[in-house]
Amino acid sequence: MSPTINMFFSQPDFVSFCMHLDYYLQQKLHFINTKFNYPVAELRGDRAIPTITLNFNYASDSKEAEELWERRKVRINRKNLYVILYKLDGLTVEQAKQLEHFPCKNKVLLTAEKLPEISWAYYIKPNERQQYASAYLGRNVFGKRWFEKKWDFVDFLNK
Question: Superkingdom, according to UniProt (predicted)?
Answer without folding.
Answer: Bacteria
